Amino acid sequence: MNNNKSKAMRRLSNALNANDMDSAKKIIETDVKRHLPKYEYYFYLGLVTEDYKEKLKYYDKAIKANPDYADAYINRGLVKNELNDFEGSIKDYDKAIELDPRCSLAYNNRGYTKHRKGDYEGALKDYN
Questions:
Q1: Which residues neighbour 83 within 8 Å (Cβ) at sequence distance 6 or greater?
Q2: ∠29-34-36 over CA atoms, to 5°?
Q3: pTM higher than 0.85
Q4: Which residue, 47, 43, 84, 44, is CA-closest to 60?
Q5: Residue 8 and residue 3: Cα distance in Å, rounded?
Q6: Residues 6+ apart with CB under 8 A from 11
Q7: Average pLDDT over residues 47-62
Q8: What is the DSSP letter of 68?
């Protein structure tokens, strides 16, 4: 990562850690948009957007720009889970696991979603 990208990501990380979403969004709209691939730009916009339907749109765009971006599937799965679309959420986690079979976050989140929908055996398998 070149120096400008490193600075942009450090500034974004600091804003996110401070839970300063207004600053984070400004950094995304300027530095991230300029220095990172389009799929990461959409991913980070989804991260700082509060409205779930808008988040879905940004994660959809990130996935369209890079269908192999596991993090976008994980975050889209989180949003679908919050919207009680458990099947859609599980499909997104399945895709993330297909892309990265060692991704413990995808297994954990899929387990949580299975638990929410009453599939306790499936949740336990994912947690293990």
A1: 52
A2: 100
A3: yes
A4: 43
A5: 9
A6: 27, 31
A7: 97
A8: T
Locus of tokens 């929410």:
116
Check if the beta carbon of residue 87 is closer than 8 Å to that of residue 119.
no
Query: How buried is residue 22: exposed, middle or buried, by Cβ count under 10 Å (0-12/13-18/19+)?
Result: exposed
Residue 70's contacts (CB-CB under 8 Å, 6 or more residues apart) are: 95, 96, 99, 100, 103, 106
Give the separation between CA 62 and CA 72, rounded to whole angstroms: 7
Q: Is the confidence at residue 1, as pLDDT, over 70?
A: no
**CA–CA distances in Å: residue 90 to residues 15, 52, 56, 75:** 30, 17, 15, 12
Amino acid identity of residue 15, one-letter, is A
Residue 117 identity (one-letter amino acid): K
Predicted local distance difference test score (pLDDT) of residue 60: 98
CB contact set of 32 (below 8 Å; sequence gap of 6+):
8, 9, 12, 40, 41, 44
HSE, CB side, 13 Å, CA atoms: give it for residue 99: 18
Q: What is the mean pLDDT of the chain?
A: 95
